[in-house]
């Protein structure tokens, strides 16, 4: 699954906000039982593992010129809720940048 979140602020500001707020990602996952682990292999890429409801979802967030791009590998068992997850990522991604 690929979700783009556009932004119109400087790229350095996006990088700073994402780094300082990445611990808040778990707060935006329904159910309140999620754990999110992140690491930064480069300045413009954040690796992410989300553990929730017995599932581990692995993904990356790339900081591109005018957008954040979330790429998450969804297991087949969760593919039916992809539109709901994509909508939540888009909404919450914008909040992380404010």
What's the CATH C level?
Alpha Beta
β-strand number: 5
CATH architecture: 2-Layer Sandwich
* CA-CA gap between termini: 24 Å
Residues in helices, as a percent range: 25-40%
Q: What is the chains' assembly state?
A: single chain
Quote the average pLDDT: 88
Largest sheet: 5 strands, antiparallel
The fraction of residues in strands falls at: 35-45%
**Do you know the CATH topology?**
TATA-Binding Protein
Q: How many domain units?
A: 1
Q: Strands across the major sheet, in which order?
A: 1-5-4-3-2
Count helical runs: 2
Helix/sheet category: alpha+beta
Q: What is the H/E string?
A: EHEEEEH
Q: From the alpha-carbon coordinates, what is the Rg to the nearest angstrom? A: 13 Å
Globally, the shape reads globular
Low-confidence stretches: none
Can you tell me about this structure?
By secondary structure, the chain is an alpha+beta fold. The chain has one domain (2-96): TATA-Binding Protein, CATH 3.30.310. It contains two helices and five strands. Strands 1-5-4-3-2 form a five-stranded antiparallel β-sheet, covered by helices on one side. The radius of gyration is 13 Å and the shape is globular. The two termini are 24 Å apart. The mean pLDDT is 88.
Short description:
The chain is built from two helices and five strands. The chain has helices at residues 11-21, 82-96; strands at 2-6, 35-42, 45-52, 55-63, 67-72.
Chart the SSEs and their pairings:
Elements: E1 2-6, H1 11-21, E2 35-42, E3 45-52, E4 55-63, E5 67-72, H2 82-96
Antiparallel strand pairs: 1-5, 2-3, 3-4, 4-5
């Amino acid at each position: 699954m690929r979700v783009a979140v556009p932004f119109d602020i400087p790229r350095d500001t996006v990088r700073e906000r994402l780094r300082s707020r990445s611990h808040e990602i778990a707060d935006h996952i329904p159910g309140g039982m999620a754990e999110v682990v992140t690491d930064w292999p480069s300045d413009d890429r954040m690796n992410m593992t989300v553990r929730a409801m017995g599932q581990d979802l692995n993904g990356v967030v790339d900081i591109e010129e005018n957008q954040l791009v979330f790429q998450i590998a969804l297991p087949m068992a969760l593919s039916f809720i992809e539109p709901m997850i994509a909508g939540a990522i888009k909404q919450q991604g914008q909040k992380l940048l404010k």
